[in-house]
Write a structure and sequence with these properties.
Length: 327
């Protein structure tokens, strides 16, 4: 099989298109013909060497799979050859998804929603699982609550807006003015242009000084540090980014806030919950650009570029090398 191999830690040119032996499904595993994968910030963090002790080189990286079951190992009962599936490979647990085939434990694999293409499904598995864990498992977002989503036009953010709205929440979102209409189309009730408006002032104005129940932070830094200033009493802050600096815990303490830091875990249950939203027409991932397998270095370079203009996710069409719509 062909795969993009990470030969050294560094820039996007650290990848090389290589030939590998096609893996085989062991007991409790499925072998999947990968039709699509996608690019996440975690992918370029791994590539540049943020987790060197967890990623022995050379490595096949990548964290999203949508494809078709090729074969199943002994003991597998939920899937059979020909089934369309989607999942997030075990992070730091073997080969990733930048390849034509992938083997995974049956326990983390889900049946792909019929209403999604492979590119769309591969653009939802990791970010969707992250959103579900952040908003519902950790923050416990409930009907009628108010949530602030930072970075609402991005891969995680655009899914979070839709999932929060589907749960019956009032959604406030930050984005650039360029992305405002897109974010409103996802269901956001209030969109704040972070380039021209102070989100703390706008949130407090829109909520009559009460604040929001949940903040989902996809940005970090100053955005995370100022988030307690918009929290209601018993509010929850959920962040999916690293914390390089001490946080503003005095203001968080004043409103009895709780903090949650999420590094998503793989399981079929979250995929099934997301699939239900998709089937009900309440969730649709947006694929902002598509590259072939050999174009992964260019896709990485695009995602790392500040203000790259890409809404949603960057998809990788593994099966159809001609399916390319780079911006």
């Amino acid at each position: 099989m062909r795969a993009m191999s990470l030969t050294e830690f560094g820039g996007p040119d650290a990848f090389a298109l290589s030939e590998y032996e096609t893996p085989k499904a062991g007991a409790g595993e499925v072998l999947v013909r990968v039709h699509a994968t996608s690019i996440n910030p975690l992918d370029y963090q791994v590539r540049r060497g943020d987790y060197p002790d967890l990623v022995p080189l050379p490595a096949i990286t990548g964290h999203d799979v949508s494809g078709v079951v090729e074969a199943v190992g002994s003991g597998v009962s939920a899937f059979k050859p020909g089934d369309a599936v989607w999942y997030t490979p075990q992070i730091f647990g073997g080969h990733g998804s930048y390849a034509e085939y992938h083997v995974a434990s049956e326990a983390i694999v889900g049946h792909k929603p019929a209403g999604l293409t492979h590119l769309e499904a591969a653009s939802l598995s990791l970010v969707g699982g992250t959103v579900w864990e952040a908003l519902f498992t950790r923050a416990g977002l409930r009907l009628g609550e108010t949530v602030l989503v930072h970075g609402a036009a991005g891969g995680v953010g655009h899914v979070a807006v839709q999932a929060a709205k589907a749960s019956g929440a009032f959604v406030v979102a930050t984005a650039s003015g360029y992305d405002a209409d897109f974010v409103r189309s996802l269901g956001a009730d209030v969109v704040i242009d972070y380039r021209t408006e102070d989100y703390v002032a706008v949130v407090n104005r829109e909520t009559g000084g009460v604040g929001v129940d949940v903040v989902l932070d996809t940005i970090g830094g100053d955005t995370l540090e100022r988030s307690p200033r918009v929290l209601a009493q018993l509010g929850r802050i959920v962040s999916i980014v690293d914390i390089p600096n001490p946080q503003n815990l005095i203001e968080a303490w004043g409103c009895n806030a709780s903090y949650h830091f999420v590094f998503t875990r793989q399981n079929r249950g979250k995929l099934d919950e997301l699939a239900t939203l998709v089937d009900r027409g309440l969730l649709k991932p947006h694929v902002g650009a598509v590259y072939p397998l050999a174009g992964i270095p260019d896709a990485h370079a695009l995602l790392e570029r500040p203000r790259n203009g890409v809404r949603g996710k960057i998809g990788i069409a593994v099966v159809d090398e001609n399916a390319s719509s780079q911006p």
